[in-house]
């Protein structure tokens, strides 16, 4: 019985830590600065109000901007749905694969992590798309995830992106960039 106690205690501590992290999650500007690609203050000095405002022009403008991507990722973390963005980014990286030797293993990793039923970071796609992607895995190509990636992109664009634009993370960020000008 005694050898089990440290194991149980360790799991309880881990659970407390995870629950503590959940209780601290918030949709705020500070959460965004914690994951900026550069040092937060330097990054914010480089980010202009005009750039941050352009993120509202289109979802693709947001995704193509380093800090826009970081802010959107921070927002998705508050909603516990960052796997969508991570899958989309993994697909973008996968499309740049030039080595045919690496293609199949990279495809398998992406499939197992995001597409397969019960994947650790399973994305929300319909059965037909999942099955088409599974068939594409028989002969992986640079386009084997195109349909699934398109569905996830569309889901983020129609669902998460409008909420991001209304979020405290985005509005606080805009306020910060505007305050610098005054």
TrEMBL record:
Membrane topology: Peripheral membrane protein
Subcellular location: Cell membrane; Cell projection, Dendrite; Nucleus; Perikaryon
Record field: transmembrane: none
Keywords on record: Cell membrane, Cell projection, Membrane, Nucleus, Signal transduction inhibitor
Record-linked Pfam families: RGS
InterPro entries linked to this entry: RGS, RGS_RGS8, RGS_sf, RGS_subdom1/3, RGS_subdomain_2
Organism: Lophotis ruficrista
GO biological process, one term: negative regulation of signal transduction
RGS domain location: 58-174
Highest taxon listed in the record's lineage: Eukaryota
Gene that encodes the chain: Rgs8
Main location: membrane
Designated name of the protein: Regulator of G-protein signaling 8
Assigned GO CC terms: dendrite; nucleus; perikaryon; plasma membrane
